[in-house]
Design a protein that fits this description.
The protein starts with 6 loop residues before the first strand and ends with a helix. It is of the alpha/beta class. The protein has one domain. The relative contact order is 0.20. The longest helix has 18 residues. It contains eleven helices and six strands. The protein has a six-stranded mixed sheet.
Length: 253
């Protein structure tokens, strides 16, 4: 693998919902081509797609909108080693997202943010009521098996020379880093619809967002904003060395 190899970029709007999270959205950008479709799949299907991407000889970068780690403070309070693999095993030991959250809150009811959350200005902490299922299912059902299969989960685990790399992304962070607002584009009615149109137009004009008209139409019409979130994650991610704590807590690219 060389740095000049083209990279196929995948943006994933993740779901930790019960029943396998069938609302996951996947947008794929092949070098030199527009995004041609947005797929809907569940967590098992996503795992299989990522594993299958090892077989075509290309380099693949998967940006997934879900927390990839737990704050060091929480690990310490719960007696877990400052080690990412240990944190995955700890989550898995609870058997379900809700059991894990109950176990954590029995020890510490605070919900600290990771350094990655502070730097990237993500909306919610890993254990927040609105996101804890995403954290647990992403780490236990997706990332753990991927590392075991030889996929790189950056910067925490997996072979450094892997041709398939999975990283944490955040659509809100994508917008903020490009000087836009992450507010107002999700919901029913004309104002959110107009806001989605503005984001799409800005992305086309300034950020290199490239997709077919049918994909843009789908993003424009999707009131939940999930399709647009997946599309935004196909843009080039943040580049730079993460801090040492990211080896335990994860990092938002």
């Amino acid at each position: 693998m060389t740095a000049s190899d083209p990279i196929v970029r995948h943006g994933v709007d993740f779901s930790g919902a019960d029943g396998g999270g069938s609302g996951i959205r996947l947008a794929t950008r092949v070098p030199g081509e527009p995004v041609r479709r947005i797929d809907r799949l569940d967590r098992r299907g996503l795992l299989e797609r990522i594993l299958a991407s090892r077989e075509d000889g290309d380099r693949h970068l998967w940006l997934i909108d879900a927390p990839f780690g737990i704050p060091v403070r929480t690990l310490e309070r719960c007696g877990v080693d400052r080690d990412w693999s240990a944190s995955v095993a700890w989550l898995a030991s609870f058997g379900s997202p809700r059991d894990w959250r109950r176990g954590v809150r029995a020890v510490d009811r605070k919900e600290p943010k990771r350094e990655a959350d502070v730097v990237a200005a993500t909306p919610l902490a890993s254990m927040n009521l609105r996101v804890f299922k995403q954290t647990w299912t992403a780490m236990v059902e997706l990332l753990g098996p991927l590392v075991e299969a030889g996929v790189r989960v950056d910067p925490m685990a997996g072979p450094l020379d892997a041709r398939v790399v999975v990283v944490e992304g955040c659509p809100a962070t994508v917008l903020k880093r490009r000087g836009d607002s992450a507010k107002g584009y999700k919901g029913t009615g004309q104002p959110p619809r107009d806001r989605r149109e503005t984001i799409i137009r800005q992305g086309i004009e300034s950020w290199g967002l490239d997709a077919t008209e049918s994909v843009f139409d789908r993003c424009h019409d999707d009131e939940g904003g999930d399709d647009l979130d997946a599309l935004l994650l196909t843009l080039d991610p943040w580049q730079g060395p993460p801090p040492a704590v990211a080896m335990v807590e994860g990092w938002v690219w």
